[in-house]
Amino acid sequence: MIELKEMLPFLLPLAAVEVALLAYTIWHILTHRSYKRGSRTLWLIVAIVGMQLIGPVLYFLLGKEED
Fold it and tell me: Could you report the per-residue pLDDT of 21-54, keeping only the tens digit for each?
């Protein structure tokens, strides 16, 4: 069985990337006024609840308005 100690070198960078992506996504949602689909509140909920990489990716694929 794989121990947590063995997985840390992989998990720590992954967690850092997830937190950075979530922070950038929330910043982007809060600083823009228009979205392809949905509203600011909807995308904040999707990004925060779906924090495990899925929420931010969904926002950039489906919600982000082209600049």
Answer: 889 889 998 998 888 888 889 888 888 887 676 7
- Bridge-partner residues for 64, per DSSP? 35
Q: Between 4-31 and 40-49, two packed helices, what is the crossing angle to 10 degrees?
A: 180
Q: How far is CA 60 from CA 3, 9, 47, in A?
A: 34, 28, 10
- 3-state class (DSSP) for residue 9: helix
Please give the full DSSP string across 17-48, using - where no structure is assigned: HHHHHHHHHHHHHHH---BSSS-HHHHHHHHH
Q: Which residues contact 35 (CB under 8 A, 6 or more apart)?
A: 43, 63, 64, 65
Q: Is the pTM of this model over 0.90?
A: no
